[in-house]
Amino acid sequence: MRHKLLFSFFIFLIVALPIRSKDFVLTSGQTVVIACSPSEELVVRTALEMLGRDIQTVLLSTTQANEKTGEIVIGTVGQNELISRTGVDVSALRGKKQAFLLSVSPEGKLVVAGSDKHGTAYGILEISRLLGVSPWEWWADVTPEKKGLFKLSSKYQSLQAPSVEYRGIFINDEDWGLMPWSSRTYEPSTVKGEIGPRTNERIFELLLRLRANTYWPAMHECTLPFFLTKGNREAAKKYGIFIGASHCEPMACSAAGEWKRRGEGAYDYVNNAPAVYKFWEDRVKEVADQEILYTLGMRGVHDGKMQGAKTVEEQKAVIDRVFADQRGLIEKYVDKDVTKVPQVFIPYKEVLDIYHAGLQVPDDVTLMWCDDNYGYIRHFPTAEECARKGGNGVYYHVSYWGRPHDHLWLSTMSPYLIFQQMKLAYDRGIQKMWILNVGDIKPAEYQIELFMDMAWNIEAVASEGVTSHLKHWLERELGASCAKAVLPVMQEHYRLAHIRKPEFMGNTREEEKDPVYRVVKDLPWSEKEINGRLQAYDKLSETVERAASKIPSGRQSAYFELVKYPVQAATQMNRKLLYAQLARHGKADWEKSDLAYDSIVVLTKQYNSLEDGKWNRMMDFQPRKLPVFNRVERKTATSPMMKERVAIYKWNGLDGKNIPNSKTLNARKGTSAICEGLGYESKATGIDKGDALMFAFDNWKTDSVEVDIRLLPNHPVGGDQLRFSISLDDAAPEVISYETKGRSEEWKENVLRNQAIRTVRLPVSGKKSHKLVIKALDEGVILDQVMLYMPSPTGE
């Protein structure tokens, strides 16, 4: 009886006491068994191969596949029973696209469950991130650190799903970087201009690691088109990549590179429609089984206007016909329910005028809006556009060829501006598709990751903030000690380039009829301004040199690519052109400008020789051979240098005291939270419509003041106006507009100096103190600086 009681007691303890869950642990050198069904889609198996390489690199462990059990269990919900056997609740994935759940089971297994094939693939590569493998491990030579142990708590769980459905990049203006590097260095080819499957697999691997799923291939005439290159289609399938195309490449056809090879006659749907239709039809039949984002509509070959139709009404009639024919092809060859096939229409440049003329875009087609090529989005969807089934997308640039001047070299687009504009875009309903024009990928690594991280989880980036995001990125790529030293360097690097990009330092312009615009000339800066900027860049360059001693083993090339080259090349570009300006006025030696040019040459040679020539031909410091990139011609100035004008009072946006709209209860300080790091002093402030900022100053002996109001040169957010009012003391407010139209002269000036400037003259009363009030009359007003001057004799 006693034994029975003891036995019953032990059984009670076993049943009653909670079973302790196990942590997930991988030990270096020990084989890792991974359970995954062979029936999983190709992109899942591709991600699994990548994880196997990462485990080998970090833990020196091999992986072994098993269909039933393993330390890691992987599966797409509904595809097989592997996930259900683990007992992990995956109900949170229900109804989500591209989502994944990582969870440690009670037995200490790491379970990776995806809502679909993309979600499962992203979940697999989340393990690589947890192992410490950077998405840039190959593209920026961020060598992973070895580990003896990898551990996740028994309580670990991560549920993730994308904020934006289609997220990707556009390779563009590849003539001086990616194309020569691919076709002559990485994947040598006898076919001129070929970017082949070996290169594209590397790009697609990067996209998969960045949780991106969309690719617009290179399309310049110098490059053999994507679908004409053997193996490219198969590479896209392997990595689960949707192939899309830009605004001038409808129906997966690169007109710039393909029409002269496959087309007959003129690329003209008015006078040669049968040939153009066949051009599209042949491609749709070829790629019917491929994941394609079909671009609808029509422009000219490359980036030109439509042929055959002259007026907006004529062009609108042609596009109406084009829509019907293109969707007919999709219905005939891809899916009888055309609404199930993703399609996009991009009202870019003159096509926007056609859209505004009343063009009816099918409701299931995504409308993709564009920035002005310099980071400021031109149109935000209306309520009607937001209600469309197809949703809205954005095509955004961190690299551009065109007027008023290219920025193809150093990728200095402010991450703070990217965040502000893309967060605004998301909040205004642009949530279907985000595409980033990345040029050659390098050296835009950070901007690309910030953009993709926002597209994946915009609230996480918003709550973290850009500075913290940049800090964590630098820590992952370069180690904590090095990151601490270079974080302020990169912030200042982006701030100085926000004021004026390195490519704009010659005060030249492109695509103008008058050749005088291509002659390097003085910037409208005083000697003091120039010397202050030179000192700021010298400080950055010196800090970059000192921080090199903090680089972890195996990350020297990464440091050069991500920090040293972009910062020091920008430094030398500024030195070359600013010392030349001083030398033209006899205030500096020409040798300083020449030495800066020589330094750029040396830095670029060093870049192209990294990793035993891995990146040879990737970096070109003279894209398009523009005048600004040459050694500066020695000349003597014929007019005096601009004199410094001293402001009596100077404020930035954050100096203003908020005066909230009396109709609102929320007395917040404009929209300053979304303007982190923006502006000439990194202190620009958004002002909500109806709110105002007040600036106080003491009286001085004058009957009037001249006020410079300097704002971000963004575009209207709601409607077609950007207005503010300004008033001094109790005087009636003066209403001022500053929106620009198209590519006007004012817009060009705004782009080059990255400010919209309005100057007003206001009468001053005899009061001891004064209040200057600037009130936003429309959404989108972002105040950068306010300057108060004594009026000039002419009142200018």
Automatic annotation (TrEMBL):
Residues 687-790 form the Gylcosyl hydrolase 115 C-terminal domain. InterPro entries: GH115 (IPR031924), GH115_C (IPR041437), GH115_sf (IPR042301), Hex-like_dom2 (IPR029018). Keywords: Hydrolase. It holds the Pfam family Glyco_hydro_115. It comes from the Bacteria. GO terms for biological process: carbohydrate metabolic process. One of its GO terms (molecular function) is hydrolase activity. The keyword Repeat does not apply. It comes from Bacteroides ovatus. The keyword Hydrolase applies. This is Glycosyl hydrolase family 115.
